Structure formats: structure tokens, C-alpha cells
Amino acid sequence: MSAIHPKITEVLTHTFKVPAAEIHPGSTMDSLEMDSLAVAEFAVLIRETTGGDREFDQLPKDATLADISRFMDTAARSGARVGGAAAMSNAR
Amino acid sequence: MNRPAVAVTGLGMITPVGNDTESTWRGVCAGVSPARTVAGLEGCAIDFACMVDGIDLDAAIGSRASFRMGKYVKLAVLAAREAVTDAGLDPARWDGSRVAVVVGTSSGGSASLTEQAVVLDRLGAGATSPSGILLTIPNMPAAEIAIQMRATGPSMAPCTACSSGATALSVARDLLVTGQCDIAIAGATESIVYPAAMAAFARSGAGARRDGDPAGLCRPFAADRAGLVMGEGAAVMVLERTDDARARDAVPRALLAGTGATTDAHHPISPHPSGAVAQAAVEAALRDAGWTAEDVEHVNAHGTATPVNDATEAALIARVYPHRPPVTAPKGVLGHCMGAAGAIEAGLTVLTLQRGVVPPIANLDAPAPEFDIDCVTKQPLRRPIRRAVSHSFGFGGHNAVLALQRP
Predict the structure, then answer these.
(1) Structural domains in chain A plus CATH codes
(2) Per-residue pLDDT averaged across B176-180, rounded?
(3) Minimal C-alpha gap between A53 and chain B (Å)
(4) Tell me: the pLDDT tens digits for A6-30?
């Protein structure tokens, strides 16, 4: 499976102003020029979608967007809290 | 004192009446305040303000870094870009080690700090932003401008509350005069229209309470003035030694001829009723510029529309400038942009010198009868102005005055 979770595309384009043309299943945070702070912020925003206890930093550093999408799907299936945070954080 | 003259070679502004210098000037000259009800302030005792409008700040910033910038940072970055372009400078080509950045703010990112406190309380630490500190600390406007423009000279964020902008320009002038830089990007920024700040502001008693249309509420120097109206915005200038500016064929907009600063050391909010210490700041600026009081042809007043500020300042103006130069007070239109106000008003004073136009004070028919000052009302006053002063008097008693003149 190589689809990109729509939340990833939304966060990358909306919050981090990554051009949509650069967003591919094989892209990594490095290839998208996301620095460590940006990656940490990205993780918070993704966690708002997936909920759950699985932390984003379990992923390898060179994880692709396809890897992150699979991680999110798995986290979502494992249940746990979903939503609630989206309206609050990052609302500047 | 034998000291190199300092020129304003670039100007950038983003304010409640315009997202650049020209639209701001037009809006201030029109004399109509954009104060309005603000959606995020429902239930607050003061639920209105003058807001920067009609711009997608993130799109305007246009970089992957905007996520880590509070609104106060974004406003400053946009104003700085306009100022540097206006100066005809290109950060890709300058010697960044000779460029200083001095951008003040009063409250920095207190808005984001408050948001993060709510997230922490409701959702826990895991939901808070890893950028929480960057969204909060007051030096980030200067730092982000330096990063974007590769300016590696001295940088800092002066904080003297409502006079921070005037203080920043004064500090930048000193960095140029003492040879610590060749180009200074200097100004101030503020954005604190959020519920906790507006609640505190209302409770302090300084804010005007709603009484009909908010646009008519800020009435500097009026007999029925009711307090200040909150604004937000940023203004940034490029300053250079005049000789350097001329050497690269830049055309100065104005000269920063003198600066003066004093501290009331009296009360955190109320100005000293005698106005003597604020007057000492005016006199210091005039002395620094080598002017006499009679040289001053225009006063851009602090004019907050609070009962005490305007009474003290009107008496000061009448005392120091008995020849009655025309007075304007941009806060009638813009509201009080707090830390940014001094920089915005200095920018407007520069435009007055360039264009021979003094904007009118909004919402004012005539000054209170006890104020013996010549307020510009209703229409812009067209008159050549060679020398002007901009007054800034901040919470905490920080007085800062700039003397500006035509090149």
C-alpha cells in the first residue's frame, strides 16, 4: 500500500507550506526539509488524528510518508482516543 | 556633538487599516477607525479591537517556518521585508555581518502562551506544541528576521511597553552611530487581542467600554474621551548612516535627528501628573537633534485617549511648544498597537515629512477646552513640515521621543 493518509498531506501543505508537488509516498521528513522541530510539531498534529498511545517517535528517522500512513492506520485501528485536540492546539 | 547623521531609507508597515505602508497611510489620512467586534472575544467585557485584516499571514510569510511563528512574529517579518525592499536592499547580496536587527515588542507571544496553557490543562503535555517557547519569547521577531535575511550583526528586542517601537529605533540609531553595524532593521510589533489580555485590559480601567459603534470610541484629546481601544500591527524601518545611504544612491525618506528617553519612576500605569519627566524626554530629543522647541513644526502625539495620558500630554505640548504646532494622534484610527505603536507613529511621521500632510485625529471635533493645543481634525492638514517629533509614553513610565526631519 502506498497511499498517503489525507491528514499527512493536509498538515504538510497547510501548516508547513510544503508544496503539494513534493509530497510522494516515498518522501521522508529529510527530503521535505522538515527540521527536528517541524517533525516534532508534525507528530503532535498527527497524533490529534490517530489518538492512541503509540508515539510517532517509534518510527525510524528515515520513515517514508507511506510508512507514516501505515503507522497511522494501525494506530487508529488500535482504538484509543481520537479527536478532541484538533480544535485546540496549533490554533494561532 | 559631531556624530554621523542617520537616515530612514526603508519603511514597512502592517496595521489595522492596511497591510503595507501605502494602504496604512491612506487609511490613517481617511481618519476612520476600523475598530470592530472580534469573533474570539465573545463574552469579554471588551469584545472589540482594531485588527490586521484581509491577509493570509501564513501565505504571505510563505515559508516552511511560519508554523513556529506567533502572529507578532509574522507581522514583524512582513513589515521588515517591505522595509528592506523599500530601501532597495537585497539580503542575498549584502554583508550580513554588518546588518543589525532591533525589533521590540511589549507582550511578545503572550497570546500563544495562554493558548498552550489551556491545551496543557485540558489535554496534557503531549498535546502541547513543541514550538511553544518559540511562539512566546519576545526576541523571536528579531531572530526570525535575522534568519530570513542572513543578518548576523547584533540583534535584540527592546521592551519598554507602549514605547518599545521608539526605543528600538533609538537603540538602532545608536548601533549605527557607534559603528556596530552599517544597516539597522528596526521597529516593533504587537498582537495581543486574545481573551485573557483583553479581560485584564478591561479590568485595569485603561480600556474604553463599548458605547455604540466601537469605531467611534477612541477619541484622543476629546472632552469625552473614554479610554484606549486595542490595536495590533508592526512597523519596521531600515536605518543607515546618511553618508552610506548616499554612497549607494539611496534616497532617504527622512533623517532620525534625535532621540530622548526618561523614566517616570512613579507608577506602573499612571503618568506622573506633572509631566516633568516626560517633558525631560522631549527636551533630551530636541537637544540631541540640536533643535530648539520652536523648530518643531508638528507633534505626532502618544494620544491614547485615556483621561490621564491626554491631559498630561496636552499640558506638556502646550508648555514645551507654545507656538502651537499641529498635533495628530494616530491611535484614534489605529487603536493602541501597544509595543508597535511607537514604530508605526514614527513611520507615519516620516510620511508626514515626505508628503507635507498631517493626518487628522479620528473621532475628534475639537480638543477638550482645557487643552491649549492645535489638533488636526476632520481633514488632513496640507503643510510643508521640516521637523517633527513623535512622542511615546509607555506603561511603566518609559518615555521615548524621536525627532525626525526632512533630508
Answers:
(1) 6-77 (1.10.1200.10)
(2) 98
(3) 10
(4) 999 999 999 999 999 999 999 999 9
Ordered DSSP codes for A52-75: SS--GGGS-TT-BHHHHHHHHHHH
A48 neighbourhood in chain B, CB within 8 Å: 127
User: In B, which residues are within 8 Å of A92 by CB distance?
Assistant: 70-71, 111-112, 115, 135
Which residue in the set A15, A34, A89 is minimally distant from B119, CB to CB?
A89
pLDDT at A56 over 80: no
**For testing contact with chain B, the best of A18, A32, A82, A89 (most B CBs within 10 A):** A89
What residue of A is the nearest CA neighbor of B65?
Answer: A16
d(CA B307, CA B227): 7
Q: Higher pLDDT residue, A88 or B39? A: B39
Question: Do the chains contact at A88 and B119, CB–CB below 8 Å?
Answer: yes
Cβ pair A89:B135 closer than 8 A: no
Indicate the pLDDT class of residue A73, thresholds 50, 70 and 90.
confident
Using a CB-CB distance cutoff of 8 angstroms, which residues of chain B are in contact with residue A18?
A: 64
Is A50 an 8 Å CB contact of chain B? no
Measured CA to CA in angstroms, residue B107 lies from B80, B136, B164, B201 at distances of 19, 9, 10, 13
Distance CA(B294)–CA(B289), nearest Å, equals 13
Residue A89: pLDDT over 70? no
Same fold, B7-247 and B258-405: yes
pLDDT at A1 over 70: no
Check whether domain B258-405 has CATH 3.40.47.10, yes or no: yes
Fold of B7-247: Peroxisomal Thiolase; Chain A, domain 1 (3.40.47)
Q: How far is CA A2 from the centre of its chain?
A: 15
- Give me the torsion for CA of A67, A72, A73, A74, rounded to 10°: 90
Catalytic residues of B: 162, 302, 336
Single pTM value for the model: 0.94
Here the ipTM equals 0.82
Domain boundaries, chain B: 7-247, 258-405
Candidates A50, A88, A92: best to mutate against B (most CBs of B within 10 A) is: A92
Residue pair B188/B165 in contact (Cβ under 8 Å)? The answer is yes
Q: Which residue did the predictor score with more confidence, B213 or A82? A: B213
* pLDDT tens digit sequence for B270-312: 889 899 999 999 999 999 999 999 999 999 999 999 999 999 9
In DSSP terms, B259 is beta-bridged to: B402
